[in-house]
Amino acid sequence: MINIEEYKDECFDVVGAIYNVKKELGPGLNEKVYQEGLGIELKAMEIPFEREVTVHPTYRGQKMESLFYLDFLCKKSVIVELKSVKTLDMEHRAQLFNYMHIVKPKVGILVNFAPLYAEVERYFYDNTTNQIVNTEGKYLRNKYDDNITFNRVK
Questions:
Q1: How far is CA 43 from CA 11, 50, 78, 130, 143, in A?
Q2: Separation of alpha carbons 152 and 119, rounded Å
Q3: pTM score
Q4: Per-residue pLDDT, 148
Q5: How many C-beta atoms surround the C-beta of residue 61 within 10 A?
Q6: Measured between alpha carbons, how far is 153 from 135 in angstroms, rounded to an integer?
Q7: 123-131 contacts, C-beta under 8 A, 24 or more apart
Q8: CA–CA distance, 69 with 100 (Å, rounded to integer)
Q9: What is the 8-class DSSP label of residue 95?
Q10: Which of 26, 27, 39, 148 has the fewest CB atoms within 10 Å around its CB?
Q11: What is the rounded distance in angstroms from the CA atom of residue 36 to the CA atom of residue 143?
């Protein structure tokens, strides 16, 4: 069983950086604008990060030529996936969950900058079970789990 409070602490400052960007830039801009703003903010806050990290998926243990691009990998253990859409849906979550199953970070953060108030969802990766856990400590059955409670970070 993972220690969710420890994992929440791991991403506390990253979530703060996200809210700083939202406060400064406001709603309704292109995802790339928010991505650039978050890069500037993470650097100013001295949070280690890599932007647009390329990851090769594997199939039957074999590395594929295909690539995924993570928006951000912070502290080598926090994936941040940015969106600027009307509303987050299961396909956005599935994208983050797929990245988490490949990279196996401690935390995955899904952000939607488009609405008036940023939507921020956090998920945690349990390396012992290879499963994703929500903020309530509930294991997700699969990447399209329709029984998930989506808790926004406030």
A1: 15, 10, 15, 31, 32
A2: 6
A3: 0.89
A4: 46
A5: 5
A6: 9
A7: 123/96, 123/97, 124/2, 124/4, 124/7, 125/100, 126/1, 126/2, 127/2, 128/1, 128/2, 130/101, 130/104
A8: 12
A9: H
A10: 26
A11: 28
Q: Is the distance from CB of 138 to CB of 145 less than 8 angstroms?
A: no
CA atoms within 13 A on the CB side of 150: 15
The pair of three-digit structure tokens given for residue 22, joined into one six-digit string: 């939202």
What is the enclosing helix (H) or strand (E) of 16?
helix 4-25
Q: What is the DSSP string of 26-92?
A: -SS--HHHHHHHHHHHHHHTT--EEEEEEE--EETTEE-S--EEEEEEETTTEEEEEE-SSS--HHH
Tell me the three-class secondary structure of 114-144, residue by residue: CCCCCEEEEEEEECCCCEEECCCCCECCCCC
- Tens of pLDDT, residue by residue over 54-110, are 999 888 989 999 999 999 999 999 999 999 999 999 999 999 999 999 999 999 999
The CA distance from 24 to 31, in Å, is 15
Three-class secondary structure of residue 3 per DSSP? coil
